[in-house]
Amino acid sequence: MSQTSVTDIEQTVRRFVAEQLRIGIEEVDVDTDLRSLPRFDSIHALQIVLEIEQHYDIEVEDRIVFETSTVREFATAIAKVVAEAGAEPLS
Asked: Which candidate, 80, 78, 74, 85, places its Cα nearest to that of 1?
């Protein structure tokens, strides 16, 4: 079983954010404040969490997305959950 890196998770989060908000992935930098992105709100945030959960087959506490502000911070928090669960991407 290979270990998923934070960088891999950052790229996955960037992709999910861009898809969910219907913006170009180039608009989603790892240091961009998620709340500054167009159409980002709590509904989209929770949908992104759901996609991450399905992708890595993990459970993420909703509070994580509200306690982090950038893709980098969010991905780091997700990496900890993935590592604790020993999870790998399903897709």
From this structure: 85
- What is the H or E stretch that residue 75 is in? helix 71-85
pTM: 0.85
Q: Distance between CA atoms of 44 and 20, rounded to whole angstroms?
A: 7
Rg (CA), the chain: 12
Q: What pLDDT sits at residue 39? A: 92
CA distance 76 to 23: 23
Query: Residue 91 — very low, low, confident or very high, per pLDDT cuts 50/70/90?
Result: low
Q: What are the structure tokens assigned to 14, written together?
A: 């960037």
| CA-to-CA dists, residue 91 to 19, 23, 41, 42, 63, angstroms | 16, 22, 26, 25, 25
pLDDT in tens, 34-70: 999 999 998 998 899 999 999 999 999 878 877 899 9
- Distance CA(66)–CA(51), nearest Å, equals 16
